[in-house]
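Example for tutorial group B:
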């Protein structure tokens, strides 16, 4: 029984010792509470700021006096705190700072922050990427890991001489060391309220040019972006991983990011899914899936800045391309009277950036125009299509090639009653300048080759006219201006100088008639003056022939007979 009795007595003594220790701790805490509760203590505040200065490379200016509260938790409250980093990159000021301390370290004379709350803080930092790199090199994130939780209420961050992020509410949790970091925040930037969430597996790796797995998400009225992958390297300014972006308008999102590129955007919702790789101010997207209005594309894209100008480049492919939304926002080329528009084209937004975009489609729909397999190239700088600002309007240079183009549908989009139809193949090289479509047509220089197949010319019946070639004058004109002339092929070459196109040679071959034409077309006022020589086709010994002139507006030229040759004087 003696050993059992000893064990019982030992247990009682341990209970008594624990009770005594708790009582002494409570008494000590009560004494400290009575002594320090609500009292300004410069020594405690100075000690805490000294830790920040030596541990994080910060210099404290003001706010060294702290008020201590021990109930319900030990808390230090600062007023008028001002800090700056030793490199002079950033300055920080907070009217109110509250630091909740850990109980156990405090009882042995150590100050460890469990939670830090900043109320209405203001951060100002130097502009440029060099400032961000300088902060990263100091490893401030790793050295400020004494607080497991950071709360910011109604803060502001401003780049010196630049714009500010306002109304910042932030909750950051991190246990330090190799533990992950979680952040949730709201802020107002460029008039948009943004919700931000981030998770970083190893935040200390980022500040040492390493990499860490991360998830980032930002949501605002202009759109939503989610990223999952690796961040870090290059002083924390690079990333690689999967990105998903969506919003009501792609151009609106790019404008919000101050990436004012030459991207004609008709509006409408968009969604982007891609593998993203970023370094500095350049972002590349591969395995792109882009839904833009009614169109869905696949391919690659890149966003970057060249000489301070935003630039978009890429190669995209789609099964079906609907150009209708872009036609709705395109400048009006002709007015209701079929004349060129005199309204100036506003190209000020497009001149701010560069665009190098190549699009291929298995079929294209542009209003009433339907095309087969088509390749488009949009280059807003030197190249196949170059658009640049001029002293008065635009300077446009380029070259176009087309095949299997329904010329009738194209002319129907420009004229109420087109006279020509057929399947067209050809090419055009041109340059012009001016403020409005009317000016651009009047200043056009270039050359074009065109071949039409299986078409017809409306309100021009050459076969009927040839069968009635015994008549002249009004009778001949009446025969030509009715019906239509079908043809198997029509080839022509045009040269334009200052808005006047010379028709060097046009050859039309049909089942019943062959015709040659020469003359000139006035592009500015949409008029023509052309001589036509027609003859019956086929194996005829003496085919009938006739000549006449087409003169007047394109939409309805007059047909004038060839003047009668002068008659010889009567014999005497």
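The residue assignment follows.
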């Amino acid at each position: 029984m003696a050993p059992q009795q000893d064990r019982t007595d030992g247990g009682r003594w341990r209970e008594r010792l624990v009770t005594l220790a708790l009582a002494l701790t409570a008494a000590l805490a009560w004494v400290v509470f009575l002594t320090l509760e609500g009292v300004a203590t410069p020594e405690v505040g100075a000690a805490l700021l000294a830790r920040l200065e030596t541990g994080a490379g910060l210099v404290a200016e003001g706010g060294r006096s702290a008020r201590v509260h021990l109930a319900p938790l030990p808390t230090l409250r600062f007023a008028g705190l001002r800090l700056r980093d030793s490199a002079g990159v950033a300055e920080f000021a907070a009217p109110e700072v509250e630091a909740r301390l850990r109980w156990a370290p405090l009882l042995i004379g150590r100050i460890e922050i469990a939670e830090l709350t900043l109320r209405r803080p203001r951060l100002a930092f130097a502009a440029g990427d060099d400032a961000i790199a300088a902060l990263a090199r100091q490893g401030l994130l790793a050295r400020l890991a004494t607080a497991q939780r950071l709360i910011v209420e109604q803060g502001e961050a401003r780049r010196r001489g630049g714009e500010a992020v306002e109304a910042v509410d932030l909750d950051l949790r991190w246990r330090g060391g190799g533990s992950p970091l979680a952040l949730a925040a709201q802020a107002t930037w460029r008039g948009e309220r943004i919700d931000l969430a981030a998770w970083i597996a190893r935040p200390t790796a980022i500040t040492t040019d390493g990499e860490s797995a991360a998830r980032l998400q930002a949501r605002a009225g202009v759109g939503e972006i989610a990223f999952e992958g690796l961040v870090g390297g290059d002083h924390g300014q690079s990333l690689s991983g999967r990105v998903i972006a969506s919003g009501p308008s792609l151009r609106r999102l790019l404008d919000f990011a101050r990436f004012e590129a030459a991207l004609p955007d008709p509006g409408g919702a968009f969604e982007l899914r891609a593998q993203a790789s970023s370094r500095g101010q350049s972002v590349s997207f591969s395995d792109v899936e882009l839904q833009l209005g009614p169109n869905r594309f696949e391919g690659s894209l890149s966003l970057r800045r060249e000489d301070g100008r935003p630039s978009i480049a890429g190669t995209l492919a789609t099964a079906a391309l609907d150009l209708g939304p872009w036609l709705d926002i395109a400048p009006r080329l002709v007015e209701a009277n079929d004349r060129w528009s005199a309204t100036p084209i506003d190209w000020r937004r497009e001149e701010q950036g560069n665009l190098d975009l190549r699009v291929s489609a298995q079929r294209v729909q542009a209003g009433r125009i339907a095309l087969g397999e088509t390749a488009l190239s949009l280059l807003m700088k030197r190249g196949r299509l170059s658009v640049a600002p001029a002293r008065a309007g635009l300077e446009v240079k380029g070259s176009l090639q087309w095949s299997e183009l329904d010329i009738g549908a194209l002319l129907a989009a420009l004229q109420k009653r087109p006279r020509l139809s057929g399947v067209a193949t050809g090419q055009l090289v041109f340059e012009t300048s001016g403020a409005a479509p009317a000016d651009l047509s009047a200043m056009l220089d270039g050359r074009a080759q065109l071949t039409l197949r299986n078409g017809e010319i409306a309100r021009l019946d050459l076969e009927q006219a040839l069968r009635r070639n015994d008549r002249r004058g009004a009778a001949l004109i009446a025969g030509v201006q009715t019906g239509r002339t079908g043809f198997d092929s029509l080839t022509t070459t045009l040269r334009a100088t200052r808005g006047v196109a010379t028709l060097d040679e046009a050859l039309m071959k049909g089942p019943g008639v062959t015709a040659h034409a020469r003359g000139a077309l006035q592009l500015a006022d949409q008029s023509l003056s052309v001589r036509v020589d027609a003859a019956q086709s086929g194996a005829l010994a003496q085919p009938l022939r006739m000549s006449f002139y087409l003169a007047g507006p394109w939409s309805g030229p007059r047909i004038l007979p060839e003047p009668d040759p002068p008659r010889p004087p009567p014999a005497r």
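Residues 29-40, 139-145 have pLDDT under 50 and may be disordered. Compare this with the pattern of hydrophobic and polar residues in the output above.
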